[in-house]
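Before a colleague's protein record goes any further, I have to sign it off. What it holds is a sequence and that sequence's fold in token form. Would you go through it and say whether the fold makes sense for this chain? The record follows directly below this note.
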Amino acid sequence: MAERRAISGIKTGRNGFSPREYQVLGYLVQGLPNQEIGVKLGIRSKTVAHHVTRILAKTGKSNRTQVAVEAVRRGWVD
């Protein structure tokens, strides 16, 4: 299986997301679990979970799938 990469062209500084939240969002859109996102970013999966929680709160969504759909629909990630 090909290694998944971060989505290129992730936008920063908009919609109230921090640059790290945008990185997490890019991997979240790809469907990666917290542990794998943490490995790719060099952070703990618990820290990833914190970022995901903040992304959910900022978007008003209740799950990762809803956030991923919204991120693609609004063009937050390429």
Remarks:
- Helices lie at 19-29, 34-41, 45-59, 64-74.
